[in-house]
TrEMBL record:
Keywords: Disulfide bond, Oxidoreductase, Redox-active center, Signal. InterPro entries: Thioredoxin-like_fold (IPR012336), Thioredoxin-like_sf (IPR036249). The keyword Signal applies. Belongs to the thioredoxin family. DsbA subfamily. It comes from Chitinibacter fontanus. Residues 49-209 form the Thioredoxin-like fold domain. This is Thioredoxin domain-containing protein. Pfam families: Thioredoxin_4 (PF13462). It comes from the Bacteria. One of its GO terms (molecular function) is oxidoreductase activity. The keyword ATP-binding does not apply.
Amino acid sequence: MKQKTLFIAAAIALLGLFIGGTLMFKQQQQSEVAQQVQVNQQALMRMHSPLIGAPHAKVTIVEFLDPACEACAAFYPFVKDIMAKNPEQIRLVVRYAPLHQGADQVVAALEAARKQGKYWQALETLLSTQQQWAINHRADVNLALPILSGLGLDMAQLQTDMQSSSVQAIIEQDISDAQALGVNKTPSYFVNGQPLQSFGYQQLAELINSALATPEQAMTK
């Protein structure tokens, strides 16, 4: 009986040590991420970054996305819905972290569509049809382009612009910034400069709501 009691006590102690160690490791990771973001604030937004919403909105969501990422496609309507519920208070800035094979070419197509004034239509079209051109975690731009042609784009010009130095420079800058900020998965969100540390719909909503509730004079613009 005594041995059994000692065994249970030891097991409880080990479990406590494991949980405590896990929590400490997680807190340390979160602290390191926060410090990394603080040091690289200039990497969050660039002049070239696509932006939707009020230009001087109280809350800025910076999203690093990969158009071939399933979670990105799933979260995009969620973010748009939160924006719709808070008109003039939230703006969304899109950055790229094309982690899937071939996704950089799809990003190039998006930026080329932007040159023709149809960036957001192209983004939403590609996200909603992702299963047709992103198969087995590989993005195939040759499957994506026919889908984009339905937007009335000049496809010959689009394919020329995809290879332009300006478009390639945007992609390279975004990849460099994503690495500087420690972005290794998509979507990765930053709300008024604060990284979303625990991923999920509820967690993102809470981070946004916290920023909305923060007095404006204390906000980072």
